[in-house]
Task: structure prediction
Amino acid sequence: PRPGGAGGARKKLALIFRASHERPNGAWHGYHEGMSNRVAVVPGSFDPLTLGHLDVIERAAGLYDELHVLVVHNPGKEALLPIAQRVSLIEQAIAERGVKGSIVVAAWSVGLLVDYCTDVGAQVLVKGIRSQIDVAYETPMAIVNRHLAHVETVFLLPDPSHALVSSSLVRQVSQLGGDVSPFVPPAVARYLDTGARGI
Ligand code: PNS
Result:
């Protein structure tokens, strides 16, 4: 089996439970009690990265010591960009925006999202919420992830100017030849304008 896979995550989970019972105040997480390195993961399909995503990444980078932006394959969605291209565009967009903080961009396709969190020591997932529809979509995933590995989900509100932007709309506009530059970071707009069509 893959090192750090589901089996490894289950073993680590057992250790977390033991630690929780040993704490006098019943708290099970160190990060309430001055743990020095607060690590969070912003997961998503990012197919492609939008200005709304970048806004959430920038806000989260200001809140945590180390932020992992994780590109996860979502089998429920038909993909536009290869995973490696999504990673590269996120890296370019973060650099061009000058987002401050310790940020890792990575991809994950081999198991549960919480396995990645356990591997990198992250206790928090960060998601952007644009509307009640997002709340309904995210709530079951947040509860499942908390049950699986005590990983909490923190919801951030992006700037309202991004409230109507979604990757699926950008994909559709791009595939039909429309201008997506108002909705995506410049690196993504450049790529969709040229690279994605092989120009
Ligand atoms: O940007 P998306 O498509 O809304 O992101 C959804 C994503 C990829 C974060 C979600 O599908 C996910 O967490 N997939 C990983 C598989 C997993 O861990 N599933 C169980 C908990 S939901």
In short: Confidence is low (pLDDT under 50) at residues 1-32. The chain is about 45% helix and 15% strand. Residues 139 and 153 are 9 Å apart (CA to CA).
